[in-house]
Design goal:
Elements (H helix, E strand, L loop, with lengths): L1 E5 L8 E5 L9 E10 L2 H8 L17 E7 L11 E4 L2 E2 L5 H4 L10 E2 L11 E5 L3 E3 L6 H21 L7 E4 L5 H12 L3 E6 L2 H9 L4 E4 L5 H8 L5 E6 L3 H10 E9 L12 H6 L3 E4 L5 H13 L6 E6 L3 H9 L6 E5 L1
Parallel strand pairs: 10-11, 10-13, 11-12, 13-14, 14-15, 16-17
Antiparallel strand pairs: 1-2, 3-4, 3-8, 3-17, 4-5, 5-9, 6-7
Helix pairs in contact: 3-4, 3-9, 6-7
Length: 342
C-alpha cells in the first residue's frame, strides 16, 4: 500500500511518501480501506518530535480516518467487509475502571493512532474493532474524517467540562482551526452567544458564516478589551482554548466571575504564566481536556447526519501532497480542516 511515513524527526522533508506491505490484522481488529483522512496539529508535532516523548519510528502519522471495511478479524461481529465506517482515534484497554464507566479517554493505557501506533495517512489502517463506528450514507467520508477528532474534542470541552448553557457568552480562540470551527457550532447548538478570535478579515467573515456572533481580529485588536466592550465589562462565562501561552493572559483577564477556561492544547507554547489574583478573586475554574469519550462520537455523528453540525473543510488534497498540506497548516493559512485523499 502507499502511505506516508516518518523515519526521523524534522522538517517537511522527513515526510516520506512510499509503498509498504498492507498491515495484517489480529482477531479483534478491522482493516479499513481509508477513503479520507485529515491533518491535525499533532501531525506536525509527531513529525518534528516532542521533547521528552519517545515515538517509535518509522511511524505512519494521521489521527482521523473514514473509509470502507476491507477485512475483519474472527472476533469482530458488528461490522463486515464493505461497510462504511469512521474511526474513533483513541485506543484504551477496555477493562479498567475508566473504560467501564465510559471515560475511556482517562484510561492509563490510552493511546492515539498516528502517535503511539501507525495512523491513517495510508491506503489501509489496522484498528481494534471497537474503534470503528458505522457511518451513515448521509455523511461523506471527507466530512467524517474532517469532523471526528475536532468535534469530539470540542464536545467534551463545552458540554462535559464547561457545561455550556443557553445564554452563556463563549469565547472560542483561534477559530480558523478545526477545534475552533467545531466549538462555534457546538456552542450555538446549545444556545450560547459566541465570540471568536482569528487573525485576518477573511477569517472574520468565515467565522460569522458558521455561527459566530462577534469576531475579534487579534492582529488588530486587544482581545480582553474587546471582550469588555462586547459583554458590558462582565466578561465571558466560558473560554475554549487550544493555543496556550500566547493568549493565556488575555484569556484569564476575559473571564467573568466564576468563569471557566477549558484548555486542550498549547500550539504556541506550554509554559503560560497565570496571574493567580484573577483566579482566586474571580473564583475561576481552569479545566484540562483531552479528546473525548468514544460514545459521544455516536451523538456527534447523528448531528452531522441531521445537518445541525457541519465539519468545515478548507480544502482537499491527494495524500501524495502531504508536504504541501503540512506547510499550509504550519503557516495557519487554512480555515477548518485540510482533508487528504489516499
Amino acid at each position: 500500500m502507499n502511505c506516508v511515513r516518518i523515519h526521523e524527526h524534522g522538517g517537511l522533508d522527513k515526510l516520506i511518501y512510499e509503498e509498504i506491505p498492507t498491515p495484517k490484522i489480529k482477531a479483534d481488529e478491522v482493516l479499513v480501506n481509508v477513503k479520507a483522512t485529515s491533518l491535525n496539529h499533532i501531525d506536525i508535532w509527531i513529525r518534528q518530535g516532542l521533547p521528552g516523548v519517545k515515538i517509535a519510528l518509522p511511524m505512519i502519522p494521521g489521527v482521523d480516518a473514514a473509509g470502507v471495511v476491507a477485512e475483519v478479524g474472527s472476533a469482530v461481529r458488528h461490522v463486515k467487509p464493505g461497510d462504511r465506517v469512521v474511526v474513533a482515534q483513541g485506543i484504551s484497554c477496555g477493562h479498567c475502571k475508566f473504560c467501564l464507566n465510559g471515560s475511556d479517554n482517562l484510561c492509563k493505557d490510552y493511546i492515539l493512532i498516528g502517535e503511539h501506533r501507525d495512523g491513517a495517512d495510508a491506503e489501509f489502517l489496522a484498528i481494534p474493532g471497537r474503534n470503528v463506528l458505522p457511518l451513515s450514507e448521509k455523511i461523506s467520508f471527507e466530512q467524517a474524517a474532517a469532523g471526528a477528532l475536532v468535534f469530539l474534542t470540542a464536545w467534551q470541552m463545552l458540554v462535559e467540562k464547561a457545561q455550556v448553557q443557553p445564554g452563556d457568552d463563549v469565547l472560542c480562540v483561534g477559530v480558523g482551526s478545526g477545534i475552533g470551527s467545531a466549538a462555534i457550532q457546538i456552542a450555538k447548538l446549545f444556545g450560547a452567544r459566541v465570540i471568536a478570535t482569528t487573525s485576518s478579515e477573511e477569517k472574520v467573515e468565515k467565522a460569522k458564516e458558521i455561527g459566530a456572533d462577534d469576531v475579534v481580529n487579534y492582529k488588530k485588536q486587544s482581545v480582553s478589551e474587546e471582550i469588555r466592550k462586547l459583554t458590558s465589562k462582565k466578561g465571558v462565562e466560558i473560554i475554549i482554548d487550544h493555543v496556550g501561552k500566547s493568549v493565556w493572559d488575555e484569556c484569564i483577564r476575559s473571564l467573568t466571575k466564576g468563569g471557566k477556561l477549558v484548555t486542550c492544547g498549547a500550539t504556541s507554547g506550554y509554559d503560560a504564566v497565570t496571574d493567580l489574583r484573577y483566579v482566586f478573586y474571580k473564583q475561576l475554574q481552569i479545566l484540562g481536556s483531552t479528546m473525548g469519550k468514544k460514545g459521544d462520537l455516536v451523538t456527534i455523528l447523528k448531528f452531522f447526519e441531521e445537518g445541525k453540525l457541519k465539519p468545515v473543510i478548507d480544502r482537499m488534497m491527494p495524500l501524495s501532497q502531504i508536504k504541501e498540506a503540512h506547510r499550509i497548516l504550519e503557516e495557519g493559512k487554512q480555515f477548518g480542516k485540510i482533508v487528504l485523499i489516499p
